[in-house]
Amino acid sequence: MLRVLSHVGRLEAITLPDDLVSRVEIIAIPSTGELDDGVTGEVLLSTPTVMPNLEHVLSRGVRWAHLIGTGIDSFPLDLIGDDCILTNSRGLSAMPISEWVLACMLAFEKRMPGSWITEPPKAWNIPSPGFGTLHGGTLALLGIGGIGTAIAERARPFGMTIKAMRYSDAPSPLDYVQLVSSIDELVDGADHVVLVAPLTDATRGLFDDRVFDLMKPGVHFVNVARGPMVVEDALRRALDSGIVACASIDAPDPEPAPAGHWMYDHPGVRLSPHSSWNWPGAFPAMFEMFIENLRRYLDDEPLLSVVNPADGY
């Protein structure tokens, strides 16, 4: 019987497959304080947020830890030793986030909701200002993992040219997505710039005044990644100068954005409370990767979505 120590309860809302029920024991543990004597487990199920007793729990025989989330920039990776495998649920939000990004792109091009009317307009059949289109436009993706790939797959039928930049030497997952090697190449000529990369030392503060100045005036900027990847004063200057026509921000800095934060009332910002991942099946989906990896762990097969602490993702 494989014992799982769980910071997220006993998974009452999740039904373990029949082939795992007799092989797995899940023990709910508190997020603070030490565990009772004798409570050990080979597997830890936790979250990307820091649990106060994480270091203590890891010392109770944990050989594999799984995080039910994607972003791990707040997780203390230094606590994961060479004798412990860390995985997460990478890609679980690819579908809803990609839909959210396409919705933002279409809303920007079609001037929604500003193009809706509540009284007779000055001219019928002719919107003012006129609409744009995704067709023939260029989409630039910082990151081409699960979420970036899902966005590209949905943008392609609209007739977009798609380029992406990634921080690995892996090939493009889609033959119609051109990989570029620098941020300068990525943003050059793009109509929509979308951030879907993890927050690492390489991406922190990447979008500064210099990078915004390289963008085509009137660009639509979308961040569904992490706020610290953007120098927010630089973004505000780019908005005020017209370089960025609209910023659709699902991940500001800090999170949550405090009262009085400039993004709440800036006319060029569409701010959402880090909710692009949400859909009716969101919570069950959080555990799908864990359940698949449970089966693989028991069968001594390679785990999916392994995190490299040295890389930070």
Automatic annotation (TrEMBL):
Q: Which organism is it from?
A: freshwater metagenome
Q: Give a Pfam family name.
A: 2-Hacid_dh_C
InterPro entries, A to Z: D-isomer_DH_NAD-bd, NAD(P)-bd_dom_sf
Which residues does the UniProt record annotate as the domain D-isomer specific 2-hydroxyacid dehydrogenase NAD-binding? 104-275
> Is-annotated flag, keyword NAD?
yes
What keywords would UniProt list here? Answer: NAD, Oxidoreductase
Question: What is the protein's name according to its record?
Answer: Unannotated protein
User: Which GO MF terms are attached to this record?
Assistant: NAD binding; oxidoreductase activity
